[in-house]
Amino acid sequence: MAFILVSAFLGIAPGPDNIFVLMQSAMHGKKSGVLVTLGLCSGLIVHTVIVAFGVAAIFQTSVLAFNLLKIVGAGYLLYLAWLAFKARPDKLEGHGSNLRSDAALYRRGVIMNITNPKVSIFFLAFLPQFAEPELGSLTMQIFMLGAVFIAVTLVIFSAIAFLAGTLGTWLNHSPKAQLYLNRIAGTVFCVLALKLATTNK
Q: Could you read off the pLDDT of 79-94 as tens digits, one per residue?
């Protein structure tokens, strides 16, 4: 229960991933936000596997590996910012997955998550704290804890997507509001890129 409560708190606390879901949902609708959420949670599966087998230690000890991954992640966020800044209200007609395929939205979430080395390092520090050696295989316990964390994240981020998507539906009727939302989204993506690029281990 303690692990679930901590996981829920982390999901609610403002951070790059839930802000990302919020902005995508507000701009493109609930379905887009949920698809991005599924992508983000799939990325968490990758991080769980990495931690379970100890590969995350590489990112904790190798400055080069850490920096390369965070540069890729920051570059991708800047690409999303560029797309947001250049978008025009008339391109938001149809509000939803017409803007891009479901697979592309899903991939967007995956890339956003796995190119953030801080997630692997966070999992490496967070998950083992709740593992008990006397209860059996630590690897299996890490997998179980990761699965619980992903389930909690999926519920919370989906709720954020639905709430933000409702706001986005209203904004879809106002081209001027859409334009401002795109600019806000572009700025948010730039800030997230800067934060990731300047982060330290």
A: 878 877 887 654 444 4
Taking only the tens place, the pLDDT of each residue in 55-84 is 666 666 777 777 776 787 788 778 878 877
Residue 126 CB neighbours (<10 A): 18
Please state the pTM of the whole predicted model.
0.70
- Which residues are CB-neighbours of 26 under 8 A, at least 6 positions away? 164, 165, 167, 168, 171, 181, 185
Cα–Cα distance measured from residue 122 to residue 21, given in angstroms and rounded to the nearest whole number: 20
Q: Which of 180, 61, 45, 80 is nearest to 121 (CA)?
A: 61
> 130-157 burial string, b = 16+ CB within 10 Å, else e?
bbeeeeeeeeebbbbbbeebbebbbebb
Return the amino acid letter for 170: W
Place of tokens 């899903």: 106
DSSP state of 93: T
Sign of the torsion angle spanned by Cα atoms 23, 28, 34, 39? negative
Cα(24)–Cα(145) distance, rounded to whole angstroms?
28
Q: SS3 for 173?
A: coil
Residue boundaries of the structural domains of the chain:
30-197
> Which among 11, 8, 118, 139 is positioned nearest to 67, based on CA atoms?
118
